[in-house]
């Protein structure tokens, strides 16, 4: 979109906003474009009207301005950040757009400053990785900047298109793989229950056991937070059970790596003494010791689809579906095998 | 810098360029700003003059435009990409700048298109990760966009500030750590000899051996390309020697992971049967099995320094030094121990 005030994609014009606010059209334009030469009272009144009318800027026809997309992470330390960046950058490049990458972790007071910068560079669209940013969402609506959320961590905000992975099917595939190898006692190191994706993986695990006529043993489910430390602790907790499982499904690759390290620390071998399955298929688990059997999330593809969706919104079109899940695949490597015969 | 034609930082004005080219000042401005409404012959003539005069745009005083920095990778699949992005984003955010991340791998014909986009978004500075982009360097000079190179892979281009890590000291520290544990036959899985950083690590290894009065055995040095597959193959080659080493220094973490997998494949334990040291300290090697002893490159700090340097150039200042190396540290974890007594 142009940095100049432009009229709407069919709903309300800035002329109408100006009339209702009792200010001039250039003043509304200054508010829309984040300029500082507007009094705080006027800005608040105009922003309120813009929000109430769901004002959206019209895509620019100016060929000279480069298209910029914003890709925003909660935390760039996330292990799959680089995979999503790869997908977004590739699709954005194809569309002739630049990708501005930023993180907001540990800067909760910064949402306002961040939106000010977003305005100043006239961002054409925002791709948010994980949600928990409802205040940002509201500010973006005021700016009329289209928003797409990738892999929402919680309940997605209303009216925001989201792109995720088929977590339930993935949880089921991981568990069915272990069942097919002959495992009957299968531990789960779960993700945080406040995250939808973690709940879906847990339910997929349950559904697979149920499908095989196995009664769920709740002691085989231990909590985790997706990080390696939790996989380490969770696996040790499972090993301390009176009757430990013969296989573990860790709801993230990082927890699977922690579990493998816990087993190594006790002199147990993977997969001879215990099978381990992860979830994500991060590049590094191809070279874990042993290479990890895991559920592949198409992170780069999710990023690409997010670009196509946000550009579609920027052109005033609607996405095909407000909520898309891309398929997950089981990738069998060396960390799973049939259970050892017990003496 | 502003997207408007601005005059020079002390050398030549666009009025002078226009006079020499026999065109109007607005035409020169259009060339400088990458507009399409200029004939190819005129563009070539003006660009040639701009280059010959080393034309640089003056930093803008307009407060409304957001500062944008471009961070360019050869390949976003690089394992340390995300660490550098983290550092750059943090320092850019502190400076109120946005970070545009892009990759040019596999798009060698795209340099022209890339610079066109760079122009269109009026980038304030470019941070290039690894070099091999001399054509880009030339085009950036025409645009007057400051450039900083992080961790150059080859001979850095003249006049471009570069930021690297102390590779020679790191190679020496890794080798000295193994010597201190009592190892005498230490293998090296080297990096590509065309890369300066790989040559420096190899020389550090040699210097440490020499310092301990050990004669270099050339059969203990095997080639690699920094990737896990090379570590796997290189470690197997070392194990096939008539007298294998008791420890291996892999010149990248990824090669160290490949080496560990090669050892696991032969039923050998790390560190009991063989010690392994890496180089990089990627986040994931804290949870390799076993956690990897490695040489830490301050990748995020290198990114931060690159931002400060490129912003300094954008303000017409000079960097303190055209070539900076940040220190490396040995991080001792569980993959190294004293050699086993041989029977």
From TrEMBL, chains A, B:
Record Pfam families: LacI, Peripla_BP_3
Keywords attached to this entry: DNA-binding, Transcription, Transcription regulation
The protein's name: LacI family DNA-binding transcriptional regulator
Stretches assigned to coiled coil: none
Gene source species: Streptomyces atrovirens
Domain HTH lacI-type, first and last residues per copy: 12-66
GO molecular function: DNA binding
Transcription regulation in keyword set: yes
Stored Gene3D superfamilies: 3.40.50.2300, lambda repressor-like DNA-binding domains
